[in-house]
């Protein structure tokens, strides 16, 4: 279980300081899928990076099971079983896909072919390829996700895994998250704006303006989103009909 308690993050950009996360408190349990969603710039990736230790926090605590990891660095957190698939993954010139997967797996026994299949890649085309500039954005993203799947993690964080992934592989990816959820005790945290990913969630966490807006079931969340749509259509209809919103009272 991962707990964030009153976490604050302040970052400096263009000579001024901005409060990016404000008193974030979350309890993320084992064997659950959490989807973090919300408006652009709300602080979702910053939450992921503060869990991984990429961004230091300015206040609060982060606890993994019974261990306070607030002052632990990225490597220590990775050793404790936290993994993060970046929104924009890095290329590793000189490193082959199979070497990256072996490095990620460590002492775990994993089937690289299966893992690549799970992210929609054909092993025989990719295992011996170097992770260099010849990789497309989508291929790179899938290799990154594969390296997370190769690790046996307590907490796996995926930042917009759908970005750059084609529809066919996206379908397999959602199945892979479901399989991961059924097979392992991992806490899965996915940052996403995609309805199909939201539907995987045990809980949807809405992050707005650096705070937790609400935590709901995906059914509840999607119902509210649908309501937003109908508001919008209603307004458009009113405008089209020339009533300027008078009839619907908005
Ligand atoms: N290093 C930084 N210095 C200053 N401000 C930053 C820094 N990194 C991020 N920010 C700001 O923090 C806010 C939150 O960024 P974050 O990337 O966490 O948002 P997000 O919710 O993941 O957005 P998106 O949905 O667009 O990916 C944004 O306003 C962003 O401009």
Automatic annotation (TrEMBL):
Secretion signal span: none
GO molecular function, one term: ATP binding
Pfam families: ABC_tran
Cellular component annotations (GO), alphabetically ordered: plasma membrane
Origin superkingdom: Bacteria
Residue ranges occupied by any ABC transporter domain in the UniProt entry: 2-234
Transmembrane parts of this sequence: none
Keyword list, A-Z: ATP-binding, Nucleotide-binding, Transport
Listed name of the protein: ATP-binding cassette domain-containing protein
Classification lineage: Bacteria, Bacillati, Bacillota, Clostridia, Peptostreptococcales
